[in-house]
């Protein structure tokens, strides 16, 4: 929001600069009325000009420097030229061997000149360190230091209120009359989160509707969710809809290297909000200042972050009242926040902003596809199916990347293939077609990826295949794209099928090539972590049933002791190894039974380098199971049909009542 312009203050800084440089110039160089020409001479030449009566006045300083003013009649003799039309006055300079010896010579010369009837030589002796020189040497540095600190303090005052303004809040106040403000119409998906936030906005617009029944507005709402899901965008929509002052600030803006600055900024922020109440305060990334106190054993009792959090807790629900001030905050690390910050009376509501599902991805795509020139081949339903697990920010990146790829290929419109290339680019990285591979390496990668594709296609809970390629992308030599099932719950059969699919690449290498390679590193890492989670967290092993060692509080990361004994740790290792060995054997059995189909896939992959689900379906046959994405689409269509029928029934009932 642009700040209101107050009365203009005269800026006198340029006057100080002029006076300073003027004084320095006066001290270092004092111009005379006449143009002077200086000439440095040797001592012998200097004495010769004195004896020839070419000078009229001599000045000798105690640092053995002698200056003499040349008579106008001798100017040509000394300098050789003379500027026409100007009264020039020259000076000659030299270094005398000794001031005493030069004085004796002058006295002797004057005695001789007096005997000859000539005027004596005019000699003046002076101290080289005159008053101006002493002032310049002793006082000027002090003045320069004072001026430097003065300029620095003025600059700091302009940036942050000076030394005394370091505790001022850095919150940005959004103007409610801004034309291009964001509203709830600009936020696609997030229906549940929008409903929660809209209630806060409705209270600010019409508080009597709620207070007449004795209700009170929630004091705070915490937006929790993965990165890129639209938490900050939702807060901007609140700012656009509320028509009240909206203060926005990041959690890191509170913390500074100076002690007490964070707490001071918290007090100043709430003071400004109270003055403009009703108002909304939005703190983005609140985990920067709201982490649980006492969890880090390396910090002392006077930690600046903890003092800032204490002040924030006091302001949110302390002894004083904050009537009319609502606090919104966003974080993707709610597990590390202090429990006192999450209690009722401070953040009364936790609004979970999750990754969008299939329907919400369609809405988000519709928003980001509006400014693009699309080809007729682009299908929003197809794009939403191809991007499971993508956040709103990821979808925006896909649309932008597709437009860039289409422009790079000189397309007039953005087509379906451009979007698929954009998804591949974001997931797998840049395609490196110039990567040189031997025939043996290419065969090994093809058999490895064909093993993944075969097992995931044949297993009930394996992720459906989209595309397999052996063209290197990013750091990977080969890659396979799947459509993960979007489940709310995952059971043991799901996890075991996923484990078997992960181990299919290593199993294919051992069966058909009789070797193992380092290409299975990522597969083995993911399989080991998943098997360990099944045993230690989900209680899905035979020997450790219904036991979980998962710590949702996050305090175990600072603990030096494990929550189980050494014998239990050995049992966890054994159960993890047993699960992996069983799924490896299962993967080998599946590949042995479908040897011909796997080998055909591998050969096709070597020839074409890229195969799709249609190629796999031609070789292995269609999958007998319907994907969850299709089930969701059917459920949403049935849901919308029921809503339409209910609306029609209500309209008919309303018409009958009006007629009656």
Characterization of the model:
- It is a single chain.
- This protein is of the alpha/beta class.
- The chain has a 6-stranded mixed beta sheet. Strands 1-4-3-2-5 form a 5-stranded mixed beta sheet.
- The longest helix has 32 residues.
- The protein starts with 12 loop residues before the first helix and ends with a helix.
Keywords, separated by commas or semicolons:
660 residues; alpha/beta; single chain
Please outline what is shown here.
This protein is α/β, with parallel strands linked by helices and 660 residues long. It has helices spanning 13-28, 43-51, 75-79, 99-115, 131-138, 140-160, 191-205, 208-211, 231-242, 261-275, 304-317, 339-342, 358-368, 380-385, 392-408, 416-428, 439-458, 492-502, 504-513, 521-536, 566-593, 595-608, 613-620, 628-659; strands spanning 35-40, 55-61, 65-70, 88-95, 123-126, 172-174, 220-224, 246-250, 279-284, 325-331, 349-352, 465-469, 479-482, 610-612. Strand 8 (246-250), helix 10 (261-275) and strand 9 (279-284) form a beta-alpha-beta unit.
**Proportion of residues in extended strands:** 5-15%
Catalogue the unreliable spans: 1-10, 30-35, 157-164
Using only CA atoms, what is the Rg? 43 Å
Largest sheet: 6 strands, mixed
Which sequence of strands runs across the widest sheet?
6-8-9-10-7-11
Class computed from helices, strands and strand pairing: alpha/beta
Based on CA inertia axes, which overall geometry fits? elongated
Q: Count the E strands.
A: 14
State the end-to-end CA separation.
Answer: 56 Å
- Rounded average pLDDT: 76
Secondary structure: helix percent: 40-55%
Number of helices: 24
